[in-house]
Design goal:
The protein is α+β, with helices and mostly antiparallel strands. The chain folds into three domains: about 5-100, Rossmann fold (3-Layer(aba) Sandwich); about 130-200, ATP-grasp fold, A domain (Dna Ligase, domain 1); about 205-445, ATP-grasp fold, B domain (D-amino Acid Aminotransferase, Chain A, domain 1), CATH 3.30.470. The protein is built from 15 helices and 22 strands. The chain has an eight-stranded antiparallel sheet with strand order 13-12-9-10-11-14-21-19, with helices on both faces. A five-stranded parallel sheet has the order 3-2-1-4-5. Helix 4 (about 90-95) runs antiparallel to helix 5 (about 105-115) and helix 7 (about 140-150) crosses helix 8. The model has no long low-confidence stretch (mean pLDDT about 95).
């Protein structure tokens, strides 16, 4: 087992990894930008090292700075968290060249799944059902119009390198195609340095269902059921739950096995998420994330596992600690993402926290790097806390969420907490009968 690992991230996810390391008796090294000198992950880690100025490109995304930090501190492995370098194949390759272990899959698997076209192609060949659409990249408008005619409108044009809801454009008809095609291409180019796009049938009322998989890198893999992440704003998740209200045991076992078998067959190592849209009883693959997800705690809650510990074990060459038969669902869990944003416009709201109180009690987990007097810097993602509740069933989890939200105090800045208080009054949320478009429509009607 490693003696020391470095966490190439910040905020709540850096704490999450430091906590797992500490429980395993592994030393932790935090890296930070100058803007994060007072951040909680710096305080909590055994060692901390400054890697550059505030902008992410010069600190948390600087491969050279991070490798130097690992070499200076003698860290043997690096956990990337999510975001930043977590799905950067060149980073993984560079670590390998320096003899540092990456806590995650191989550079090759990241590369294949990071390009949405090769990912879809690979998954299709492995027997995973996909959204109907273009066969690979669409080079020009003429081809795009042809594809539109073949699969029927509406269609969605997606940047093959896209992520975080960026580089996706809807075309409701042939007339909208030209504009949507150009915008998706230019967003792909400016955000991800790649203007290749592909086209998919736009589904009218699907749910976002994602399957958590875990592989040992040696041909064994399991699934840990699904998460329903249909409540989204601008294609970004805000509320996630497990198990999915619309998924029964037989459906879970079937799609779970398809995903586990697919990743087992490629010797996938570590945690991964296979994302689907689910409509009228059919699953349609959209992408695979080759890392730990923001919403992984709901899966941890219902299965009683520690996914980060498992990631570290597998990266150290140890076997997985569970088999498929060991994994039984217990109860229901919900996560809400609390952002430093002012509703209803969702404008970022960094600043100083004058008072902070985290909810607690039975079945409540608060993953956050906030503390009294902390100043949230303006340079990074606005996620400041994840509140996760676990109860014996869905109504109990909802009641617990309401109770816990009532205990939360974050003074000095605006947060998205009021959104969740309001959502917990909505029938669609209480019954679980929502789809990926529900929240946008609700926001339009209520703000
Ligand atoms: P990203 O990599 O940016 O997260 P995804 O491909 O995972 O992009 O899609 C994100 C979200 O966009 C989905 O959860 C869904 O809400 C919406 N979406 C993606 N593809 C489609 C589609 N074919 N039809 C309808 N909505 C879609």
């Amino acid at each position: 087992m490693f003696k020391k690992i470095l966490i190439a991230n910040r905020g709540e996810i850096a704490l999450r990894v430091i906590r797992a390391a500490r429980e395993m008796g592994i030393g932790s090294v935090a890296v930070h930008s100058t803007a994060d000198a007072d951040a909680m992950h710096v305080r909590m880690a055994d060692e901390a090292i400054c890697i550059g100025p505030p902008p992410g490109t010069q600190s948390y995304l600087s491969v050279a700075a991070i490798i130097s930090a690992a070499e200076i501190t003698g860290a043997e492995a690096i956990h990337p968290g999510y975001g930043f370098l977590s799905e950067n194949a060149n980073f993984v390759q560079a670590l390998q060249d320096h003899g540092i272990t990456f806590i995650g899959p191989t550079a090759e698997h990241i590369r294949v799944m990071g390009d949405k076209i090769t990912a879809k192609d690979t998954m299709k060949k492995l027997g995973v059902p996909c959204v109907p659409g273009s066969d690979g990249g669409v080079p020009d408008l003429e081809t795009a119009l042809q594809v539109g005619q073949e699969i029927g409108y509406p269609v969605i044009i997606k940047a093959t390198a896209g992520g975080g809801g960026k580089g996706m454009k809807l075309a409701n008809s042939e007339a909208e195609m030209e504009n949507a095609f150009r915008t998706a291409r230019s967003e792909g180019k400016s955000n991800f340095g790649n203007d290749e796009v592909y086209i998919e049938k736009y589904l009218g009322r699907p749910r976002h269902i994602e399957i958590q998989v875990f592989g040992d890198g040696k041909g064994r893999a399991v699934h840990l059921g699904e998460r329903d992440c249909s409540l989204q704003r601008r294609h970004q998740k805000v509320f996630e739950e497990a198990p999915g209200p619309a998924i029964d045991e037989a459906t879970r076992a079937k799609i779970g096995k398809v995903c586990a078998d697919a990743v087992a067959s490629i010797d996938y190592a570590g945690a991964g998420t296979v994302e689907f849209l689910y409509e009228d009883g059919e699953f349609y693959f959209i992408e695979m994330n080759t890392r730990l997800q923001v919403e992984h705690p709901v899966t941890e809650a219902i299965f009683g596992v520690d996914l980060v510990r498992e990631q570290i074990n597998v990266a150290a060459g140890l076997p997985m600690s569970f088999t498929q038969d060991d994994l039984k669902i217990n109860g229901h869990a919900i996560e809400v993402r609390i952002n430093a944003e002012k509703v209803p416009q969702f404008t970022p709201c960094p600043g100083k926290i004058t008072q902070y109180h985290a909810p607690g009690g039975l079945g409540v987990r608060m993953d956050s790097a906030l503390y009294d007097g902390y100043s949230i810097p303006p340079y990074y993602d606005s996620l400041i806390a994840k509140l996760i509740v676990h109860g014996p069933d869905r109504p109990a989890a909802l009641a617990r969420l309401k109770r816990a939200l009532g205990e939360l105090i974050v003074d000095g800045i605006d947060t998205t907490t009021p959104l969740f208080h309001a959502l917990l009054e909505e029938d669609a949320v209480l019954t679980g009968e929502y789809n990926i478009h529900w929240l946008e429509k609700w926001l339009d009607a209520n703000t």
